[in-house]
Design brief:
The chain has 461 residues and is α/β, with parallel strands linked by helices. The chain folds into 3 domains: 3-126, Rossmann fold (3-Layer(aba) Sandwich); 145-310, Rossmann fold (3-Layer(aba) Sandwich), CATH 3.40.50.300; 314-459, Orthogonal Bundle (Helicase, Ruva Protein, domain 3), CATH 1.10.8. 48% of the residues lie in helices and 13% in strands. It contains 19 helices and 14 strands. The chain has helices at residues 12-22, 35-45, 61-68, 85-93, 106-138, 146-159, 175-184, 206-211, 228-231, 247-259, 285-290, 296-302, 319-333, 343-351, 357-371, 384-393, 404-426, 431-438, 442-451; strands at residues 3-8, 27-32, 49-53, 75-81, 98-102, 165-168, 193-197, 236-240, 261-262, 271-272, 276-281, 305-308, 340-341, 376-377. The longest helix has 33 residues, at 106-138. It starts with a strand and ends in a 10-residue tail after the last helix. The relative contact order is 0.07.
Length: 461
């Protein structure tokens, strides 16, 4: 895609010179004649680079840089008159990439712009790689239950293909997590992973978000904008809560999936797009079709493979694994002292019904960890809502056939199994290396593996 460059100067001839130097169809160019107009265009048009004169009335270039520059903002190249280089150096200290002194050669301008954009592209690529690495470390589907194992198996299979996938399940079960895992494991992993919650976008703006729009295509369209399909080109687009789309928008999505091309709202140019679509919903789409609220042809198009994410109440053996995972992650993120659950907290966590599923568990654990006054977190420190859910799910005097000790031992066994499995995967089945990762003696690890019926050979490549 072409980079966007904003030319900012109060002199029309100066802007004409910059446009002449860059206007070879290599870039998308826009102009602003003062700092206030430039600030508005930066916020609405999102340029990659700004060529900005320092001396301007009202808001000068240095003020503009300080207002909108920095991390996440565009790269600035400052332009100054001969004899005022000191101010340009001050601008570089404030975050500008470089500066040019008038009168400058057109080749000098082109080269400076190319160098700035090359640096920007490298920064963005490194940021994307760091985010992918962090996501890989933190966003795995946690659990050892049969239900979650089936989900992992399906993800492994569909990841190596380009088929459309429909993720179903209650809110909070991890559908976006699964979509991200499919993308990261697929041949498209180097491309973008773009998400959109269809229920969170006003209905009159959904098509603009999906397909983009041209300037002036509707009231408030002050600049050209790319849509989600265009941004996801070469990667994956995840549409969450797809059942909340209007029938008209559903028809347009179906056409995009069939033709692999879009047209921005208010535009005429046909734009080719190579996107893998993953959809998700917490509704029964067959029932929605019967009620006339969802198109059957789109349903069969997005559901080449369906993966159902089980609710947390159907995988109780994973609750403690998830709770410990969220506890450790929260402690690290907030730089807190070590925390652990006592027996009463473990029992309460396992007896709860979890209507909000994994998302509810994650938020509750973070709340408990942040507010804890001591290393040990007890049931008394967990929110009242959890006590009410646990009482409704299984009263204290009716724990059923399984005793507390049995429930605790089963949960700890699952937790230990998960830790050992991860260590063996990372060490490719080398028991000595896995023991070092787990900070335990090799003989003790071998005994644990024998007790849990785990074989190191299963993890060797």
């Amino acid at each position: 895609m072409k980079d966007r460059i904003l030319l900012v100067d109060d002199e029309p001839m100066a802007r004409y010179g910059m446009r002449r130097a860059l206007g070879d169809d290599s870039y998308h160019l826009a102009e602003a004649e003062n700092g206030h107009e430039a600030r508005f265009k930066i916020e609405s048009w999102k340029p990659d680079l700004v060529l900005c004169d320092i001396r301007m009335p009202e808001m000068d270039g240095l003020e503009l840089l300080r207002a909108v520059g920095g991390e996440g903002g565009p790269v600035f190249i400052m332009i100054t008159a001969h004899g005022t280089e000191r101010i340009a150096v001050e601008a570089m200290k404030a975050g500008a990439f470089d500066y040019l002194v008038k009168p400058y050669e057109l080749d000098e301008l082109r080269l400076t712009v190319e160098n700035a954009l090359e640096k920007l592209h490298l920064q963005r690529e490194n940021l994307q790689l760091r985010r992918q690495l962090q996501a890989t470390r933190q966003a795995d589907l946690i659990g050892e239950s049969d239900a979650i194992q089936r989900v992992r198996s399906l993800i492994d299979k569909v990841s190596q293909t380009d088929v459309t996938v429909l993720l179903t399940g209650e809110s909070g079960t991890g559908k976006e997590l699964a979509a991200g895992q499919i993308h990261r494991s697929s041949p498209r992993h180097k491309g973008p992973f773009v998400t959109m919650n269809c229920a969170a976008i006003p209905k009159d703006l959904v098509e603009s978000e999906l397909f983009g729009h041209e300037k002036g295509s509707f009231t408030g369209a002050l600049a050209q904008r790319q849509g989600k399909f265009e941004r996801a080109d070469g990667g994956t687009l995840f549409l969450d809560e797809i059942a909340d789309m209007s029938l008209e928008t559903q028809a347009k999505i179906l056409r995009v999936l069939e033709d692999k091309q879009i047209t921005r709202l208010g535009g005429k140019q046909v734009i080719r797009t190579d996107v893998r679509l993953i959809s998700a919903t917490n509704k029964d789409l067959c029932a929605e079709i019967d009620q006339g609220r969802f198109r059957s042809d789109l349903y069969y198009r997005i559901k080449v493979v369906e993966i159902h994410l089980p609710p947390l109440r159907e995988r109780p053996g994973d609750i403690l694994l998830l709770a410990h995972h969220f506890l450790q992650r929260c402690v690290q993120r907030h730089n807190l002292p070590p925390r652990r659950f006592d027996a009463s907290a473990i029992l309460l966590l396992q007896r709860s019904s979890w209507p909000g599923n994994v998302r509810q568990l994650q938020n509750l654990i973070e709340q408990a960890v942040v507010l804890a006054e001591h290393e040990c977190i007890s049931a008394a420190q967990l929110p009242d809502e959890l006590h009410a859910e646990a009482a409704g799910a299984m009263p204290v005097d009716r724990l059923g056939e399984r005793s507390f000790a049995e429930m605790k031992n089963a949960a700890m066994e699952n937790y230990e199994r998960d830790l050992i499995r991860r260590a063996l995967q990372e060490s490719k089945g080398n028991v000595s290396a896995a023991a070092r990762l787990l900070q335990m003696k090799r003989q003790f690890l071998q005994q644990k593996m024998q007790t849990l019926n785990m074989n190191a050979a299963d993890f060797r490549i």
